[in-house]
Design brief:
Layout (H helix, E strand, L loop, with lengths): L5 H19 L4 E2 H8 L2 E3 L5 E2 L1 E2 L9 E5 L5 H4 L6 E5 L11 E5 L2 H14 L6 E2 L4 E2 L4 E2 L4 E2 L4 E2 L4 E2 L4 E2 L4 E2 L4 E2 L4 E2 L4 E2 L4 E2 L4 E2 L4 E4 L4 E4 L2 E4 L5 E4 L4 E2 L4 E3 L5 E4 L4 E2 L4 E2 L4 E2 L4 E2 L4 E2 L4 E2 L4 E2 L4 E2 L4 E2 L4 E2 L4 E2 L8 E3 L4 E2 H12 L1 H21 L1
Amino acid sequence: MAKFAKADTLDTKKNITNNLYRNLSVMKFTAQQIASFIDGEIVGNENAEIFTFAKIEEGVPGALSFLGNPKYEEYIYSTESSVILVNRDFEPKKEIKATLIKVDNAYNSLAKLMMLYESFKPKREGISSLASIAPTAKIGEGCYIAPFVVIGENCVIGDNCTIHDGVSIGEGAKIGNGTTLYAHAVVYHDCRIGNNCILHSGCVIGADGFGFAPTAEGYEKIPQIGIVVIEDNVEIGANTCIDRATMGATVLHKGVKLDNLIQIAHNDEIGSNTAMAAQVGIAGSTKVGEWCIFGGQAGISGHSTIGDRATIGPQCGTIGNIKGGRTVMGTPSMDIKENMRATAYFKRLPAMAEKIKELTREIEALKKMK
């Protein structure tokens, strides 16, 4: 297998960035225009032009980069990017070729610029003749519906929605204005999706909750007759599953952000602006508060309550309720400081075990001397 030097790999990434965005982009902005939009202070050439974005270590001429983490500072002195966003307190240690724009928060300012850039891209409209749309379905204005989309009876699709190839929307489902469903997302019957939501490829909204009653002959399925309700401005990652309620509704409140490969079980309620990293699993009938943060692979027991602004660490396993504002780690979960102390002891267990064996031998020797 061929081996590539680090420099070769970096050059390849730069070429990809350069070629891709030169071909796609027709928009150019000056440093002055950018600074005006994000209330920034220019250090350097206010007429420097940019037409794309690039990581600071992969910068190319015409690109805008940002420096948010000090460990990447070394790249600011060698990057080929034309404009770099930095925090206002940044002071360079040596000369920088690029134009700097100083802002209160470089990462947040970059997000604003990327949203602006995205808004300029042409929006597709029209309904493909290869889509299957039930005659009783209602489709709003300005929608794009791709080939092989299936929309069931009595569905309601809001204005300016974008529905990509192979999406399936079950009968009676409702989709709000400005929502995007990427390829092969599935919305089961009667579920509700709000305005300006994003559902990525392969996510499944409204599959049956995991409900079975044990009998002498095996497990008997309990019908799941509830729905899923997703409020406005929610984003759901690829292959994430939100199960329908046994009765009532599984609810994701406004602003929730879910990564890929997450499981939200039946009758869960996820509070506004809560964010979850990949592979989180929330068991059934759990209530999660607002502005909570879940690290990757965290697991939450059923019928529990997580308070507002709680932070659940990666691979954390909770049993029971977690009070609001707490940060917990470990399995079973414990306060982060307590967990750090326990982890420190855990690392020392082999040495402690040997010490205990040694002390045991000494005690036995002392007993024999009596």
